[in-house]
Amino acid sequence: MQEKRIPLRKCLGCGEMIGKKGAVRIVRSKEGEISLDLTGKKAGRGAYICHDAECFAMVRKAHRLEKALKCAVPDEIYDIIEKELSSDQ
Length: 89
Known about the structure:
The protein has helices spanning 53-62, 64-69, 75-88, and strands at residues 8-10, 17-19, 23-28, 34-37, 45-50. The chain is an alpha+beta fold and 89 residues long.
């Protein structure tokens, strides 16, 4: 029997390839709205961060989320992501 393929995504912080279900997705819609995508199905440009506070700190410090989404990211979005990552642990 053939094994089911697990979709992999690259973490913006550490650069490791992780399973899509094991990552937090941040998405920018066509209208420019940035939101957290917990389902992984929202339309738009997405970026992934693994569930690690150190990875998030690297992403925030180096402004990697702005580069990945190709737009400015307000501090409120970073606070929401940080709250989501801290609630998972």
